[in-house]
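Ticket #4471: structure output looks truncated?

Reporter: J.K.
Steps to reproduce: submitted the chain below (70 residues) through the standard prediction queue, then opened the result file.
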Amino acid sequence: MPEVKCSVASCVYWDTGNNCGADAIMVEIDEHADRKFQETINGEPVDTTHQDYSAKQSAETCCHTFKPKH
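Returned output as attached by the reporter:
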């Protein structure tokens, strides 16, 4: 898995050095921000079949892996 940097320290997967410690990372288009996924990888919700081609820049995407720290 590539090194994934994340500056959202309020996420349970945030790790020292602004690293993401999740086993899987799901990125979707903003239009699907409230989408629920049926599949999981090591407990992380993912979708391995659906594809979108509408995003033209990173600002139009969001990370679904985020879980707030308690």
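Triage note (M.O.): checked the attachment and the full token line is present. Residues 13 and 45 are 14 Å apart (CA to CA).
Status: closed, working as intended.
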